[in-house]
Amino acid sequence: MLIRVVIVVLLAFPLLSWGQSSVLLENFLATSPVSAPTAQHQLNEHITRLKSKQSKKEITFLHQIFWATQKRFLKTYQAYEPFGELFESGKYDCLTATSLYSILLNEFDFEYSIIETNYHIFILVHTQQGDVLFETTDRYDGFVQDRSEIQKRIGTYQQNVVASAKPKSNYYLYSFNLYTQISTSQMVGLLHFNQAVKAFNKQEWIPCANQLAITRKTYDSQRVKELALLLIQSVPMNEENMRNSILHQFKDYWMNDQQTVAKR
C-alpha cells in the first residue's frame, strides 16, 4: 500500500543587487525542477512596488507585504509543489510560501524567526510593536497580530497533528515532536525534502533517495532519517539492486536503527 507521507511541516531586473536576498532566491530556485526563468524579474517588480508603498510604521508595512504577496503569487494551495511553481502557476504550500516571505522580510530588514513543526512551518516577525505571525496557508486571517491569537495558533501547531488529513488517505506519523527555529539554509534542505516526499508518494524510489541525500547535506534532521528508513523498507524485494543501492546510501541510518531495535 502506498503510504502518503505528509510534510507541511514543514524567490529583479537583469541582475539582482540585493545581496543576501539574491542568494536566497537562487538557492531556493535551485531546489526546484521548474526553472521559472522570469522569477527574478517578477520578484524585483514586486519589491519595487512594495518600496513605492513603504510605510515608516512596521506593522502597516508588514501588512502590505503579507497581503500584496499573497495576491501576487499565492494562487492555489498544492502540497509538495516545488518552489519555482510560485512564479509559473501560483501553486504553493506552506514551505514554498514561507521561503518566499523570508526573502522579502530579509530584503526589508525585518527580524524574523522561521519555526518548523512536524507538519507545518510558519514565520514570526519581530517588531517594536510585538510579534506578528505569518500563516501563509490562511487566505483570510493569515496575518496574526493579536498576542492571544498568536499563542493559540502556536499551541495548535505544537500538537503536531495532520490538520488536512483525509479519511481515505494513509498518513505517516512521525515518532518525534518538532517545534524548532531553523535557518534559511535549513529551509533549502526542507525544500529538497518535500521533493523526496513527492517522489516517495509516486513510488519513484531513486529520485526520492537522491533528494534525501541532498537534503542531508544541508539539514540532517530526524525526519530525513525516518523517511530514509521507510524508503528502504518500501522498495520491492524483487528490486534487489535498487534496494541495496539505497541501503548503501543510508547505511548508517539503517545500522543505528537495527542496533536500537536489538537493544529494546
Give an account of the 3D structure:
The chain is of the alpha+beta class. It has eleven helices and seven strands. Strand 5 and strand 6 form a beta hairpin. Helix 5 (94-107) packs antiparallel against helix 7, helix 7 (184-201) packs antiparallel against helix 8 and helix 8 (205-218) packs antiparallel against helix 9 (222-234). The relative contact order is 0.13. Mean pLDDT is 86; it is low at 1-18 and 165-169.
Work out the strand percent: 5-15%
The number of distinct β-strands equals 7
SSE pattern: HHHEHEHEEEEHEHHHHH
Number of domains: 2
Secondary-structure blueprint:
Layout (H helix, E strand, L loop, with lengths): L19 H10 L9 H14 L5 H16 L2 E2 L7 H4 L2 E2 L1 H14 L3 E7 L3 E7 L2 E5 L8 E2 L2 H12 L20 E4 L1 H18 L3 H14 L3 H13 L5 H10 L1 H13 L1
Parallel strand pairs: 1-2
Antiparallel strand pairs: 3-4, 3-7, 4-5, 5-6
Helix pairs in contact: 1-5, 5-7, 7-8, 8-9
Overview in brief:
The chain is 52% helix and 11% strand. It is an alpha+beta fold.
Which terms would index this structure?
single chain; 264 residues; C8orf32 fold; 11% strand; 52% helix; alpha+beta; 5-stranded antiparallel sheet
